[in-house]
Specification:
alpha/beta; five-stranded parallel beta sheet; Rossmann fold; binds 6-O-phosphono-beta-D-fructofuranose; 3 domains; 570 residues; single chain
C-alpha cells in the first residue's frame, strides 16, 4: 500500500504511465499476431459468465502493473470493508450493503451491533406473500375485483433495475404470474402514466410507490395523479367505497422511510422496507425488486439473488489475478487513465437486454461521475468515462459508423448469451430461432473483430480508397453468459456493481453518493415558483427569462383555446 499518496502519485501509476508510452502506439492486430494465446491468457470464467479481455489494448506486463496499482490502492482491503458492512459511503457516513440483500438466510452480518440478515429475509417473505396473493387473484381492489394491472411508480434506481430485469427475464414468467400485468411509469411529465390511466380500469389497478427517500418529486407527482384518478372514480360513486379502502387495496409502498409512507397513508401491511445502507441504484435486490418477483415469481427472484451472491463470493475469495470484477475494472482504468479513451459503449446482443445499457448508465455514471476524492480534493486524473449503449444489432445500423471510422476512441463491452431457444416447442420455429441466434453472435464476434483488426479483418483487402478504410485498434471486452437465466443475470449485474467499486477505490472517490444531482432539484423547485408567481424573474439570466416567457405565452394560448382539445385534436 502507498498510504497517503494521490492515486496518480503511486509507484504503479507512474510505472503504468511509462509503460503506456510504448503501448499507445501498439495496434491490437500486432498484439494478436505476437501471441496465439491471448484468449487463454486474458479470459476468465465464473458464475456462468466468461469474460474475454483479450481485445483490450494491453499485454501481460500491463495487467501485472495494473494489479500492482490495485494492491497499492488496497483493493483487497476495500473489498473486505465493503462486504463486512463498514461505512464505506463516507460522505453519508453509512455502509453500502447491497450485497447483504443477497446473503442466504443462514448467513449473518453484524452491522452496528445487529445482524441485518434476518430483516432482509423478513422483507423477502413479506414480499413473497404479496406476490402470492396477487398471483392467486386474491388481492382485490376496493370494489372486490381482482387486481390485474400493477404500475410501478419510481425513477432512477427505483425504476431502471426492475425495468431492466423484468424485460430480461420475461421468458421465466411462471404460469401463476400470467394474470398480472406489470408496467412502469417514471417520467415526471406523466407521459407513461397518462397512457395507462386512459386504458386501465381503476377497479383492477394497483400502484407500487417505489422511492427510497419517498420525497422524489417525479414519483410523487405521478403518485398524486394516480391517487386522484382512483379516488375520483371509486369513492362516492355508488359502491359505498371509502378513501381508506382505496388506499389499502390499491397502493403498496417501497421505501427506506416508513414515516413518509405513513404520511402518504400507505397501509402499514402494504409497506415494504429497505434500509438507508442500500443505495438507490443498488436496490433491485430487495423490495424495490417487487415488480421483478411479480413477473418472474419468487423462486426466480431468489435465483437472481443467488447468482449475484455467487459473484460476491468470487469477488471476495478469488485472487486479484483471476477476479472478474477486478480485471474488468482494471481494463477500464487502463483505457481512461493511460490510453485516454473516455467513451465507453455497452452493446448487448440479445433483445432481452434492451435496458441493460440504460441501467449501467446510472450505475456507472451516477456512481463514479465524480471529480472530488474522499478527502475533498479535486482529482488530477479522469474518472468515469461517458457511457452509453444500445442493443448491438440495432446500434450497428446507427452509431457503429462512429466506432469504426469516427475520430473518437471508444471502448466497447459486447454482451451475449451462448445458448438460446433450445426450449422452443415447435421444431421448425426452434430451428429458425437458433439460426437467428447464431446470426446474432456472428455479428457480435465480427464487430469486435473488425474494431480490433480494422482492414486486416478483410481476407484480400486490395487497394482501398480512404473512405473505405478501417483503422481498427478500438479495444473491447466480451462477456458471454452460458445462458441468460436469473442466476447469470444476477452475476452479470453484480460483476458491474463490483467493477464500479474497484474503480472508485483506485480513483479514491465515493461511488455511493450522488451530490451532483441535488442542485438541479433545488433550482427546479425555485424555477417552478418563479413560473407560478413571476417573482424573481428579473434576477434570472436572459436565457431562462426568454424560455419562461415562451412558456407563459404558450400557457396563455392554451387557456384561450376552447374546450380540452386544440384545433389539430392534440
Ligand atoms: O436523483 C437521483 C436519485 O436520488 C437516484 O440516486 C435514485 O435512484 C433516484 O433519484 C430515485 O430516488 P428515490 O428512490 O429516493 O425516489
Amino acid at each position: 500500500m502507498s498510504g497517503d499518496l494521490r492515486p496518480d502519485q503511486r509507484p504503479a501509476w507512474q510505472a503504468l504511465e511509462a509503460h503506456a508510452e510504448s503501448m499507445r502506439s501498439a495496434h491490437l492486430r500486432d498484439l494478436f499476431a505476437a501471441s496465439t494465446d491471448r484468449f487463454a491468457d486474458f479470459s476468465r470464467h465464473t458464475a456462468g459468465l466468461t469474460l474475454d479481455l483479450s481485445k483490450q489494448r494491453w499485454q501481460p506486463e500491463t495487467v501485472s502493473l495494473l494489479l500492482d496499482l490495485a494492491r497499492e490502492a488496497d483493493v483487497p482491503g476495500a473489498i473486505e470493508r465493503l462486504l463486512n458492512g463498514e461505512r464505506v459511503n463516507r460522505s453519508e457516513d453509512r455502509p453500502a450493503l447491497h450485497t447483504a440483500l443477497r446473503l442466504p438466510q443462514n448467513a449473518s452480518l453484524i452491522v452496528d451491533g445487529g445482524d441485518v440478515v434476518p430483516g432482509v429475509h423478513r422483507e423477502l417473505s413479506r414480499m413473497e406473500a404479496m406476490v402470492d396473493k396477487l398471483h392467486a387473484g386474491q388481492w382485490r381492489g376496493a370494489t372486490g375485483h381482482a387486481i390485474r394491472d400493477v404500475v410501478n411508480l419510481g425513477v432512477g434506481g427505483s425504476d431502471l433495475g426492475p425495468l431492466m430485469v423484468t424485460h430480461a427475464l420475461a421468458d421465466y414468467r411462471p404460469p401463476e404470474a400470467q394474470r398480472i400485468r406489470v408496467h412502469f411509469a417514471s417520467t415526471m411529465d406523466g407521459s407513461q402514466l397518462a397512457d395507462y390511466l386512459s386504458r386501465f380500469q381503476p377497479e383492477t389497478t394497483l400502484f407500487i410507490l417505489s422511492s427510497k427517500s419517498f420525497t422524489t418529486i417525479d414519483t410523487l407527482s405521478n403518485a398524486r395523479t394516480a391517487r386522484d384518478w382512483l379516488l375520483s372514480r371509486l369513492v362516492g360513486t355508488g359502491h359505498g367505497v371509502q378513501r381508506d379502502l382505496v388506499m389499502r387495496q390499491h397502493f403498496i409502498g417501497v421505501s427506506a422511510s416508513p414515516d413518509k409512507m405513513n404520511e402518504w397513508e400507505i397501509a402499514p401491511a402494504n409497506q415494504l422496507e429497505f434500509w438507508d445502507w442500500v443505495g438507490g441504484r443498488y436496490s433491485l435486490w430487495g423490495a424495490i425488486g417487487l415488480p421483478i418477483a411479480l413477473i418472474t415469481g419468487m423462486a426466480n427472484f431468489r435465483a437472481l439473488l443467488a447468482g449475484a451472491h455467487a459473484m460476491d463470493r468470487h469477488f471476495q475469495d478469488a485472487p486479484l489475478t483471476d477476479n472478474l470484477p477486478v480485471l474488468l475494472a482494471l481494463a477500464g482504468i487502463w483505457n481512461v487513465n493511460f490510453l485516454d479513451i473516455r467513451a465507453h459503449s455497452i452493446l448487448p446482443y440479445d433483445g432481452r437486454l434492451a435496458y441493460f445499457a440504460s441501467y449501467l448508465e446510472q450505475l456507472e455514471m451516477e456512481s463514479n461521475g465524480k471529480s472530488v476524492t474522499h478527502e475533498g480534493k479535486v482529482t488530477s486524473y479522469s474518472t468515469c468515462p461517458v457511457l452509453w449503449g444500445q442493443l448491438g444489432p440495432n446500434a450497428q445500423h446507427a452509431f457503429y459508423q462512429l466506432l469504426h471510422q469516427g475520430t473518437q476512441a471508444v471502448a466497447c463491452d459486447f454482451i451475449a448469451p451462448l445458448k438460446r431457444y433450445d426450449d422452443v416447442a415447435d421444431t421448425a420455429t426452434r430451428e429458425h430461432l437458433i439460426e437467428q441466434h447464431r446470426l446474432t453472435l456472428a455479428n457480435c464476434f465480427a464487430q469486435s473483430r473488425v474494431l480490433m483488426l480494422g482492414d486486416d479483418a478483410i481476407k484480400a483487402p486490395g487497394v482501398r480508397p480512404s473512405h473505405k478504410r478501417y483503422r481498427g485498434n478500438q479495444p473491447s471486452t466480451t462477456v458471454l453468459l452460458d445462458r441468460l437465466t436469473p442466476d447469470t443475470l444476477g452475476a452479470l449485474i453484480a460483476l458491474y456493481e463490483h467493477k464500479v467499486f474497484v474503480q472508485a477505490t483506485i480513483w479514491d472517490i465515493n461511488p455511493f453518493d450522488q451530490w451532483g444531482v441535488e442542485l438541479g432539484k433545488q433550482i427546479a423547485g425555485e424555477t417552478e415558483q418563479v413560473l407560478t408567481s413571476g417573482d424573481g424573474l428579473e434576477a434570472m439570466d436572459a436565457s431562462s427569462r426568454g424560455l419562461i416567457d415562451a412558456l407563459w405565452a404558450a400557457e396563455a394560448s392554451m387557456r384561450s383555446d376552447e374546450g380540452p382539445a386544440s384545433e389539430d385534436g392534440k
